[in-house]
From TrEMBL:
Gene3D superfamilies: 1.25.40.390
Keyword set includes Membrane: yes
Span of domain SusD-like N-terminal: 62-211
InterPro entries in the record: SusD-like_N (IPR033985), SusD_RagB_dom (IPR012944), TPR-like_helical_dom_sf (IPR011990)
Listed Pfam families: SusD-like_3, SusD_RagB
Keywords associated with the record: Cell outer membrane, Membrane, Signal
Entry protein name: RagB/SusD family nutrient uptake outer membrane protein
Organism domain of life: Bacteria
Species the sequence originates in: Parabacteroides faecis
Domain RagB/SusD as annotated: residue spans: 263-566
Cell location: Cell outer membrane
Family per similarity comment: Belongs to the SusD family.
């Protein structure tokens, strides 16, 4: 293993010896650093490695969630149970893989000149180097937003140098990341023809996201405004369609990682599918997420006269029924109905009634809270639920608009541009232009506290299941509230649910939960009424606002200090 790679395995300890093999740390694109990077093909191969799906994890991905939008029955993640430590898989995985990105990007940045000296096109090589700067910036952004101070490695280092390295102050890391994004944006093109790679807009948008996490709102405004001024992005007209396999490289996608069945870059959605459609109906959207969607008058469900707790999908923001399967809707050709008395449902694919495996009265492990995901899934998922290939959208234009609005709100620079940005996102959900204010609940208030509350709720419903909620809660310092809540489900067995809820006319909820200024739902009164079940109690420790440095790093490097209280 050559010197530009060895720091990665050093940082990741003994356990990475296997991981280096599994992730092919020295693929053909890395050859020998003594002779590699000698032509355009080698440089391009090295840069292509940086787009691997494994290097672009989402905070809320797979079967578990670290926020309050997704739940796997009564199971809690280490984060939700306040047991996060330096051996937690998600902690060690992020650290090791992002430092692999740093190592590979460093190799391109430091050695690409060889190809130019050998006669390669300088403009093309400079473009690849700009991509490497982009990926290095993203890796350090992911690391520092989770761990705080981190080792900053810009050059080749040997084992001795690596063992002597400590953690670099977050202020220096932050400025380095901003500079890296700026360097990338100066050279990267506005767009490509027929390919999906990092662009100028991607560098600016990812800089804005990182700045938002760091609380540098002036930087956010400047970067998002620059993206908007490029004039190349717009909202996809159909919110539901945007996340399906049939939609590729949409005009809203500022940066994405393409998936492909042909190249076995796929995702598995079988667990999310309803049980009647051959899935497991886990993990599930939480009741907290379900309650956060406003009514069509723009008011929270505990304030709106339009909300009907017995028909909770009625008169709600359209994104609710595009994200969570409504009760009684035909989804994937079969009626979805978690009602305990609905023992059979219609299969419209066959025209026959079938046993309703999406009711716990029939199947014990049907959705515990009666909710199943819909976002990103359609009939194409039935062909092979283990292998579907929708784009993995990392940042989209709706996020750019809402980041701009939030930063302006926090700076107390509220003007029409803030309302326009928020209304453009909300109006799309209703299928109208933002100017059609009579056809959707437009944002009109210029009060800072009111807009902050509305913005936070808007982000939650717009980006549900997209991996952004976790960091939103972290930067808003709301985890202490979110992670002190209980996990609620329907009463079980079904006979108890019928006795205590259905027979008393209280299906689905007896009344609306209370919604606070951050859009967080409080179900304690419904619990006190005996209408719902508590299946778990989340816990919180303030130390978790920073992740622990992986234990192996602490053990092998005396200069690597742990974050407080781990």
């Amino acid at each position: 293993m050559k010197r530009n790679n060895i720091i990665v395995c050093l940082f990741s300890g003994i356990t990475l010896l296997t991981a280096c093999h599994d992730l092919d740390l020295n693929p053909l694109s890395y050859g020998s650093t003594e002779t590699w990077y000698s032509n355009e093909i080698e440089i391009e191969m090295a840069v292509n490695e940086l787009y691997r799906d494994a290097f672009w994890p989402l905070d809320e991905e797979g079967n578990t969630d670290w926020s309050d939008d997704n739940i796997y029955r009564e199971s809690l993640t280490p984060f939700q149970n306040a047991t996060l430590n330096g051996q937690t898989d998600k902690v060690t995985d992020l650290w090791s893989k992002q430092y692999k990105v740093v190592s590979r990007a460093n190799g391109v940045i430091l050695k690409a000149h060889r190809a130019v000296e050998a006669g390669a096109s300088e403009s093309k090589i400079n473009g690849f180097v700009a991509e490497a700067h982009f990926h290095r910036a993203c890796a350090y952004a992911k690391l520092s937003s989770k761990f705080g101070d981190i080792p900053l490695v810009e050059t080749d280092i040997d084992i001795e140098e690596g063992m002597a390295m400590g953690r670099t102050d977050i202020a220096l890391v932050k400025q380095f990341v901003y500079d890296e994004f700026d360097t990338a944006a100066e050279t990267l093109p506005v767009s490509y023809s027929g390919v999906q790679r990092a662009t100028k807009g991607a560098a600016l948008a990812m800089k804005a996201r990182y700045a938002l996490y760091m609380g540098d709102y002036e930087v956010v405004v400047a970067a998002t405004k620059a993206v908007m001024d490029l004039g190349v992005y717009s909202l996809h007209k159909d919110y539901r369609n945007l996340f399906l396999t049939s939609t590729k490289n949409a005009e809203e996608s500022v940066f994405l990682i393409p998936r492909s069945v042909e190249y076995n870059v796929v995702m598995n959605v079988r667990g999310w599918l309803p049980r009647n459609s051959g899935g497991y109906a886990v993990p599930n959207p939480t009741w907290e997420l379900f309650a956060s969607y406003t009514c069509t008058d723009g008011l929270p469900i505990d304030e709106s006269p339009l909300f009907d707790p017995h028909d909770p999908f009625k008169n709600r923001d359209p994104r609710l029924s595009m994200t969570i399967v409504p009760f009684g809707e035909t989804f994937l050709g079969i009626e979805f109905n978690p009602h305990p008395e609905a023992l059979e449902v219609m299969n419209y694919n066959t025209g026959t009634m079938i046993k309703n495996n999406d009711s716990r009265a029939v199947a014990q492990y049907a959705s515990y809270n009666g909710l199943v995901w819909k976002k990103g899934m359609d009939e194409s998922c039935l062909e092979n639920a283990y292998n579907i290939d929708p784009d993995k959208i990392i940042v989209r234009y709706a996020d750019v608009l809402l980041m701009y609005a939030e930063a302006k709100i926090e700076l107390n620079q509220i003007d029409q541009s803030v309302l326009d940005a928020m209304n453009e996102v909300r109006a799309r959900a209703y299928g109208v232009d933002k100017s059609a204010v009579g056809q959707y609940p437009a944002f009109t208030s210029t009060d800072r506290n009111t807009l902050r509350s509305q913005l936070r709720m808007e982000r939650r419903v717009e980006f549900a299941k997209e991996g952004l909620r976790y960091m939103d809660l972290m930067r808003w310092k709301l985890m202490d509230k979110v992670m002190s809540k209980k996990v609620y489900m329907m009463l079980y067995p079904a006979s108890l649910l019928i006795e205590k809820v259905v027979s008393q006319g209280d299906w689905f909820w007896p009344f609306a939960p209370e919604i606070d200024e951050n859009g967080l739902a409080d179900f304690s009164k419904i619990e006190a009424a005996g209408k719902i079940a508590v299946v778990a109690q989340k816990k919180w420790d303030n130390r978790q606002y920073l992740w622990p440095i992986p234990t192996t790093e602490i053990l092998i490097n005396p200069n690597m200090k742990q974050n407080p209280d781990y």
